[in-house]
Amino acid sequence: MARPALPRPSIAKAPLARGRALARTAGGGVADVLHPLLVVARGLRALATAGRRGWERTPRERRGPALFLGAAGALAVGLAPYGPLLALVGLLAAAGWAGRERSALRNTPTEAEAARLRTLYEALVPHFGATDDPDPLYAYARTWETAFEEYAFADDGRPTHLALRYPAYFADGDPVARWRVERLLAAKCGRGREYRFDWDQEAGRLTLSVQPALPTTLCAQRFVTAPGEAILGFTDPDAVRRTVPVTDLDGRADQHAAPVLWRTGARSTEPHLLALGRPGSGTTTLLRSLLLQALPYADVLVVDGAGSGGYGFLHGRSGVLAVESDPAGALAALEWAAHETERRLVRAHEARRLGQPAPDDIRRPLWLVVDRPAALTHLTSTNARPGPQELLRGPLRHGRPAHISVVIAEQPDGAESLGPYVAAATRARVVLGPASYEQLHRTLGAPPPTSPVPDTPPGRGFARLGDGPVYRLQVPATPDPYDDATSEAQRGAVLALLPGYAAAPSATEAVPSTAPPPTPR
């Protein structure tokens, strides 16, 4: 008869489960106790990151004064009674505020906002959807919550911020495909505003944000620039790494603006500029602003092809060789500029051959400013005189070694008559006024950073220097001081920048209006 099996001792699981619960409780208690320290540590890291980014964005010329002010502030806090203790308490309070758990930008939308987001989602289905996708991110049967991550609305109910995801098979590297989506979102979110689109191709994320309008209260003034530098206008603060002190029309001087700098001279990569814009867009204002900035260190020659008379206030001023408004004088001035380019090249070559520095008469920069050269083309169709394009070929080709900068302003309908060489030599581009996406892309060689709007103030547009990025641009107000519509503040600002009248032009400075200039020896 087999012996019955002895009962095995049962393992007591209750103490083990009780120990796990005790450990979990202790861990939660420790987390609750250390939560303030974690928040402060997270805030200190956020403050350090913000400080590092702010230091990187600070221009180099302002880092020294910033360090001095910081050291002076630290010394004052250290010498004050209870200063270090109060500074520590303030730092901990700031770290706790920066490290707090913030609620996401996405909140529960109202019924009207939800309906608008639904409309945006359904409008994007033809662009982001695919019929052969088994689990599409964009489909009419799905809801917008699956694709829209963040959103914000203005008081008028229009979106001001939108972050959405798009499928990986969307051709986000194709500018045409991206432009279609951007145009759709700009139309659905509300026209008349400038939208910025940030495409994160690695994460498949698109962020839309409304850009604030650039200030229009800045007028002509003496900017802090080096010789050979000219400010085309002002752009967004995060687009460039340099700021300059400015004064607005109200007289407030404690301001800084982000300039779009154009460098000219022998070492410039883009010595010539082309500005396009409709009448009233501000191209003449841009040329007047550049002339006032160049007069302290350069000679200028102005050719007003349209004969508008917007440069009459420069007549007889020191450094102004001539201001030609009639067609015959304009062509004669261009012929003189072509011969002057040859003369400077010959003198520079002789100096280099003899091992001597360049003479002083060719080292002073010369600015050739031509407003609407296409209006002069019809004058050469009936005679044998060379046209503006042929006369500008020499200064454009050899302008950099001859210290000559050419600035051309033209309307969009006359840009094609400039010829391919003028377009190839002027790689610094400015487009002012209303313009379509295709026109901006074709003229600047790159898509604009924001969506173009149909209504813009004078002087508003885009600028690009060579192969660099495209900047939003606002040209400082530089009206004709002799115009009756000019305000007294702007008239005084422009007249204050003008040099004195020249006593008598020398023979080398005089530009003949009728007889062609002599050939240089």
TrEMBL record:
Residues spanning the signal sequence: none
Annotated spans, Disordered: 443-465
Listed Gene3D superfamilies: P-loop containing nucleotide triphosphate hydrolases
Transmembrane helix is among the record's keywords: yes
Residues binding ATP, per UniProt: 277-284
Pro residues bias locations: 446-457
InterPro entries linked to this entry: FtsK_dom, P-loop_NTPase
GO molecular function, one term: ATP binding
SUPFAM superfamilies for the chain: P-loop containing nucleoside triphosphate hydrolases
Entry protein name: FtsK domain-containing protein
TM ranges: 66-99
Keywords: ATP-binding, Membrane, Nucleotide-binding, Transmembrane, Transmembrane helix
Organism this protein belongs to: Streptomyces buecherae
Annotated FtsK domain residues: 257-441
PROSITE patterns noted in UniProt: FTSK
